[in-house]
Design goal:
This protein has eight helices and five strands; from the N terminus they run ββαβαααβααααβ. The protein is mainly α and about 190 residues long. It has one domain. Helix 2 packs antiparallel against helix 3.
Length: about 190
């Protein structure tokens, strides 16, 4: 059975026998609500100074020192527990718990700080770097979480994802490209 679609000119729709043509008419599509936020002028986006590989590497080393110091403080009580009572259960807890605590601390540290007003971890802040979206705007908590989760992929491919700023036009690592982010150098007001 062929029914003429009354909402489109010159097209026919083939419907199975017994189907009601009224069920197959076009319905208006309502666009989802979008929260407005200021967009940088196009010229300002073009003038972003992308962070160099060396600056990013140094920021990562500073962050690793900070996180490893915190990790040592987390691991000390577990080490004391493990040495005070050497049995299989305390050995497992003493070895596994700090790994999860360190992972949670590292994710919270990077995700929270990169999505904060600073837009940078302490290492990036010290070196005058910021993490922004492709429009040069502050990233959301969830975009930062995505970016930092994607670092596991950069790591799994033998760290090649971390080396990509050496050859990409916007000096983006793999996890930056996947999360649609940039790491930029903050220009000083004295220039």
């Amino acid at each position: 059975m062929i029914h003429k679609d009354t909402h489109s000119i010159g097209s026919a729709a083939v419907l199975p026998a017994g189907e009601n043509a009224a069920l197959h008419t076009a319905r208006p599509v309502v666009a989802p609500a979008v929260v407005a936020r200021p967009i940088m002028p196009h010229s300002a986006v073009q003038e972003l100074e992308y962070a160099s590989f060396g600056a990013r590497l140094l920021a990562m080393i500073i962050d690793m020192v900070i996180l490893n110091t915190a990790s040592s403080m987390i691991q000390a009580p577990f080490l004391a527990l493990m040495l005070g009572n050497l049995n299989p259960t305390t050995m497992i807890v003493g070895l596994v718990a700090p790994i999860f605590l360190y992972g949670g601390l590292a994710m919270f540290y990077t995700v929270w700080l990169e999505s904060s007003v600073w837009q940078a971890t302490l290492g990036k802040k010290i070196l005058g770097l910021r993490v922004v979206d492709l429009d040069g705007q502050r990233i959301t908590f969830w975009k930062s979480a995505s970016r930092n989760f994607n670092k596991s992929i950069s790591t799994l491919i033998l760290g090649i994802g971390y080396l990509m700023p050496l050859w990409t036009a916007k000096r983006q690592a793999l996890h930056d490209r996947m999360a649609r982010c940039l790491v930029i150098k903050i220009r000083s007001a004295r220039r």
